[in-house]
Automatic annotation (TrEMBL):
Biological source species: Paraburkholderia humisilvae
Family: Belongs to the auxin efflux carrier (TC 2.A.69) family.
Transmembrane feature ranges: 12-30, 42-61, 73-92, 104-122
Biological processes, Gene Ontology terms: transmembrane transport
Source species taxonomy: Bacteria, Pseudomonadati, Pseudomonadota, Betaproteobacteria, Burkholderiales
Record has Cell membrane as a keyword: yes
Keywords per UniProt: Cell membrane, Membrane, Transmembrane, Transmembrane helix, Transport
Name listed for the protein in its UniProt record: Auxin efflux carrier
Stored PANTHER family: AUXIN EFFLUX CARRIER FAMILY PROTEIN, TRANSPORTER AUXIN EFFLUX CARRIER EC FAMILY
Amino acid sequence: MPHSVETFLKLLGGAASPCALVSLGLFLAAKRPADDGRKTSFVFTAIKLVVQPAFTWWMAARVFALPADVVDMAVLLAALPTGTGPYMLAEFYQREAQVTSQTILFSTLASLVTLSLLLLIMQRHGI
């Protein structure tokens, strides 16, 4: 690959996440009706922070019988908050960007508690 193309792609790739975060912040700052998709966002947040890690643990530990350290890593990764990727897709396809942005915000805030609890549980079990 030519050096100029490689440099361009490296710069473009490095700018994607900051641009998504700025866009998300501007979208969240816009004034909207009070209950525009908030209940749906709470449901998605609960699924992301509770159901997905539990399902990941069940699949990794029970179904695939992976080693304990791999199970722990998988569960920890599944317990992370929703990233900006879903927001970029929702904005691109003009579908439920409000719900997606609220889910990102709520899951990021709630993950402070859920990740702390998960790490405490893992520490108590010697993980």
